[in-house]
Amino acid sequence: MPDGLPLVSILTPSFNQGRFLRDCLESVARQTYPRIEHVVMDGGSTDESLEILVGAGDAVRWTSEPDRGQADAVNKAFEASTGEIVGWVNSDDGLFAVDTVARVVTAFADNPDAGVVYGDAALVDESGQIVRHHRSRWPGGTLPLVSPLVQPATFFRRSAIELGEAVLRVDLHALLDYELWLRLRRRGVRFLHRPTVLAVDRDHPHRKVRASEDVFRRESALLAEEYGVVFGAGRLRRVGGLLRRMRGLPVVWSWDRYTPAFPWRNDGRLRRSVRQVAKLDPIQLTADRG
């Protein structure tokens, strides 16, 4: 490994998502950056996950044992890792292009005061078909109920986490990444946005953002009590969302400029444009194709 380059740790919690896991592992293994450790914490899967992990060979360090959920798995993976820069990529998501990690390392090197670097993402359906471009941003005023940062497209310095501090709170299930970003922002950590697609965010019926609204409301109340934030639907948020999706059209038209790390697929520009602007539901699109 070249001297002087920071080690990057990619943390992946995994549980019975073998049908997606191979894509995730491949997206990390295909990175051009030479200093990456991929740590997978599996919660005792009973599907094909363990066979896939064994087949990954030395490219992945993994453990399979019961845990207390996703947050516990990420915390254990963090403790088992040593990288100066850390990314958290769930087993159903992935890194978008082969130079994603290289771009992130460059951003940190060019901005030594930044503790978090985050980028944009491609939303894909179950099959890996790109649905639309998702631009990450931290809005002013009221905050959305779901994190405005795309979790697999967000990387942080290990030094941003205090000694002995758990990365994620195990009492949270839907807003666990959101709480981490709120905690680091309150601490004064600088967040830096890079306007490039860094990750794949896969949408399917069992992902957490499709969990019961009661879970989101309960956990948002907890975060509001602790951080004093206000969650709500700002008056102009829908209009702003439409404008951001339209601003993403140039990216949608030029997906082919990226060399895929994750095995995503795209189609004609007209279809891409309609999906980008209309914000069509990926699950309904999958059902329609079926």
Q: Your description of this structure?
A:
- The mean pLDDT is 90.
- Helix 1 (18-29) runs parallel beside helix 2 (49-55).
- Strands 1, 2, 3, 4, 5, 6, 7, 8 and 9 form a nine-stranded mixed β-sheet that branches.
- This protein has ten helices and nine strands.
- Strand 2, helix 2 (49-55) and strand 3 form a beta-alpha-beta unit.
- The protein has 290 residues and is α/β, with parallel strands linked by helices.
- Helix content is 35%, strand content 20%.
- The chain has a single domain (8-289), classed as Spore Coat Polysaccharide Biosynthesis Protein SpsA, Chain A.
- End-to-end distance: 46 Å
C-alpha-based Rg, rounded: 18 Å
Helical coverage, percent range:
25-40%
Report on the biggest sheet. 9 strands, mixed
**CATH level-3 fold name:** Spore Coat Polysaccharide Biosynthesis Protein SpsA, Chain A
Q: What's the CATH H-level homologous superfamily?
A: Spore Coat Polysaccharide Biosynthesis Protein SpsA, Chain A
* Shape annotation: globular
SS field, number of helical segments: 10
- From the 3D coordinates, which CATH architecture would you assign? Alpha-Beta Complex
Strand coverage percent: 15-25%
How many individual domains? 1
Quaternary structure state of the chains depicted: single chain
